Amino acid sequence: MSVQTAYDKARAEGRAALVGYLPAGFPTYDGAVEAARTMVDAGCDVIEIGLPYSDPMMDGPTIQDAVHQALVGGIRVADVFRTVEAVAATGVPTLVMTYWNPVDHYGVDAFARDLASAGGAGLITPDLTPEEGGAWLEASDAHGLDRVFLVALSSTDERIEKITGVCRGFVYAASLMGVTGARSAVDTGAPRLVERTRAIIDKGGADLPVGLGLGVGSGAQAAEVAGFADGVIVGSAFIRRLLDAPDLASGLAGVRALTAELAEGVRAGR
């Protein structure tokens, strides 16, 4: 199933899609796979697998802690592809979220080839601009992968038009100015950002979903975001359930409970 198909399926059911994020290798390689499968089983429509990076400049302390654990545990790019393969086997579209440097270092076409071979749906690239993404645009076309770029509260209409023009799968709307992390409230500018992005997509005649991320951590917040966005993206809240747990079994139970709460929220928001 493609990312677009997952969003379309959720829309046909009268709800937003639930997108869950976890870094590969956290809390261990096997633990990450188990956690992602738990998220799928409990209601996630799309999974993002983070590629651990030594300088996660856009990530808040929760994701930084998880990424640090993964790197200390010896996670490598090959393990990320193995994680994608294991999660994609559930039938849920699985994306990799990564800073650009590891992809560039690996080789853009080789990375795209190996991601596609693992059953991955595409890449989310938070620090890559369309102007600098020529090699990725070519590789993603060659290997049939989705490419998800980010729009932000500070993006002009002209910038949003350029970004959405090269997106495939969905557009990632970052609702916060600053680093990632669950918040007590959804940023008040978020609905306007989604509205502006959707209007520009519609003007171009495309049918591209808009998912909103950065800050969602509860069923109530998921319901709020589901009221105006096509997808609700959650990361730090899942990681926190694993970080705070005394053991993996307890962490997985926490992840399952949170996923169920969020899945209920995306249905209540429409």
How do the strands and helices of this protein lay out in sequence?
Blueprint: H1 3-12, E1 17-23, H2 29-42, E2 46-50, H3 61-72, H4 77-88, E3 94-97, H5 100-106, H6 108-117, E4 122-124, H7 134-143, E5 146-148, E6 150-152, H8 157-166, E7 171-174, H9 190-203, E8 210-213, H10 219-226, E9 231-234, H11 236-243, H12 248-268
Parallel strand pairs: 1-2, 1-9, 2-3, 3-4, 4-5, 6-7, 7-8, 8-9
Helix pairs in contact: 2-4, 2-12, 3-11, 6-7, 8-9, 10-12, 11-12
- Our Rg estimate from Cα atoms comes to 17 Å
- Biggest sheet character: 9 strands, parallel
**Helix run count:** 12
Q: How many beta-strand segments?
A: 9
- Portion in helices: 40-55%
- Which structural category do the helix and sheet elements fall into? alpha/beta
**How many domains make up the 3D coordinates?**
1
- Architecture, CATH level 2? Alpha-Beta Barrel
Percentage of β-strand residues = 5-15%
CATH superfamily, by name, is Aldolase class I
The averaged pLDDT comes out at 92
List keywords for this structure.
270 residues, alpha/beta, TIM Barrel, nine-stranded parallel sheet
Quick structural overview:
The protein is α/β, with parallel strands linked by helices and 270 residues long. The chain has helices spanning 3-12, 29-42, 61-72, 77-88, 100-106, 108-117, 134-143, 157-166, 190-203, 219-226, 236-243, 248-268; strands spanning 17-23, 46-50, 94-97, 122-124, 146-148, 150-152, 171-174, 210-213, 231-234.
